[in-house]
Amino acid sequence: MNISRSGTVYLLIGLSISIISCSVKKKQPATKPLRFVFITTCVDEDFFRPVKKGMNDAAALVGADCSFIGTRGVNVKEQVKMMRKAIEQGVDGIALNIISPTAFDSVVEEAMNKGIPVVAFNSDDNKTPNARLSCVCQNLFHAGELFGKKIIGDIPENSLVLVTLHSEGISALEDRLHGIQDILKSKNITCKVIITGTKADSASRVITECLKANPKIRAVLCTGLADTEGAGMAIEKSFSDKNIIAAGFDLSPLVIHYVRDGQLIFTVDQQPYMQGFYPVIQLAQYVRYGILPCNNEIGASFVTKDNVDKVEKLIAAGYR
Fold it and tell me: Which of 34, 72, 234, 260 is the most buried (most CB within 10 A)?
């Protein structure tokens, strides 16, 4: 068939338009989001609110679907079951709160062997071999030491102090406890250690009972959020005239109130937002590009009357 030059041009233009049209109609779907799961203990604690915000902010940046699950109390066996379920579901990565130095060793190795990377957050296993790739957390023993150094000048030599843990079996709290004790022994300070429970009201009752039964106690030193809130509450309600000092760990509106009003002389922030943000970034970079995660030691930031107003604004915004 004889086609003129102009006809050839029109034919090519028509074919090009047809190809472009088909390409638009058959546009490739967007990259499927990565699926990550955070697995923790004490999942309903206020402490984890900024962790979740950090997780969600990072997920939006890297294109990931993240879920935050865990046990209501300290239940290592149930956490292990959650790990195995996540492995069975074939998630792309797991961030795990490793509250025990031994309980998670085998299940973490199982996940890694199946190509599911695991990073730790909040608490790490640095006492036994563990296949996890990295951890985003505070150096807990060192944080306890810093806590002890900051408060030791306010405690007389040979005193009796109360040291609180909100739960048994959490290595993070025990590491802080040991760091505090390591510093206080230089002044022959005796530590009475008690478990308070994970709710501020119940912690306040336990602390109040202990202080009434032991009137020689000069200070209450707390290792976690619930007992820190409970100590402030107990002193405000029952011991405001007894010259008992108290300090603790973590942030919440209630802790900020007690720092501002003087029931707590300080609290130590472990920057939980970062504990949610960095694991997502590390897992995404590893899954997509093979970039190995690295440990992030997130430090120990002291909150006192001097900086409490600034910190309060950041708590309201979800970052502290």
Answer: 234
d(CA 206, CA 196) in angstroms, rounded, equals 6
Residue 268 pairs in a beta bridge with 249, 302
pLDDT tens for residues 296-317?
999 999 999 999 999 999 988 8
| CA dist., res. 11 & res. 191, Å (int) | 90
Tokens 């306890």 belong to residue? 144
- What whole-number distance in Å separates Cα of residue 49 and Cα of residue 64? 19
What average pLDDT does range 253-274 have in this prediction?
96
- Continuous segment of H or E residues that includes residue 195: strand 190-195
Q: Is the pLDDT of residue 40 over 70?
A: yes
Radius of gyration of the chain (CA): 26
Backbone angles phi, psi at 120, to 5 degrees: -95, 150
Q: Is the Cβ–Cβ distance between 222 and 231 less than 8 Å?
A: yes
Contacts by 9-16 with C-beta closer than 8 Å and gap 24+? none
Rounded Cα distance, 83 and 103, in Å? 12
Q: Dihedral of CA 130/131/132/133: which sign? A: positive
pLDDT digits (tens, 9 = 90+) for 176-232: 999 999 999 999 999 999 999 999 999 999 999 999 999 999 999 999 999 999 999
Nearest to 315 by CA among 272, 267, 230, 252: 252
Closest CA to 155 of 179, 192, 184: 184
Residues 120-162 pLDDT 10s: 999 998 788 899 999 999 999 999 999 999 999 999 999 999 9
Q: CA 67 to CA 205: how far, in whole Å?
A: 34
Cβ neighbours, 10 Å, residue 260: 15
Q: Which two tokens stand for residue 223?
A: 């290792």
**Domains, the chain, with CATH or none:** 34-138+271-299 (3.40.50.2300), 140-269 (3.40.50.2300)
Compute the distance between CA of residue 87 and CA of residue 69 in angstroms, rounded to an integer: 14
